[in-house]
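Table S2 (text version). Query chain:
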Amino acid sequence: MSEFKRHNFKKLKIWQMGIDLSKVVLDITDTFPVSEKYGLKSQMDRCCISMPSNIAEGSSRTDKSFSHFLDISLGSSFELQTQIILANHRKYITIEQTNNIENKIEEFQKATMSFQNTLNK
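Corresponding structure-token output:
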């Protein structure tokens, strides 16, 4: 049986990356048209908040359970990536913003998958 240990989520690089990404996305979605308040803005806000939140929640669980929460966080990141593309299509964000956020999302995904692999050993 593996020893149960808790992770200090605030010290986890992936949580910090998720927080930084959330701040960027929340600041950007605040500039969206009012008509998107309950549409794309709301969806993007919930996705970016879900990423670090699931890391924090999972950090108090067993490694197997934590891995599941990381899966949820990763799912939210892929969902957010799709919404970023759509926000660009709607001209709510520039191509530069799109590329910047997509790069941050991809870095988050790689780091999260790498961390998850250490839990599953």
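Notes on Table S2: The radius of gyration is 15 Å. The mean pLDDT is 94.
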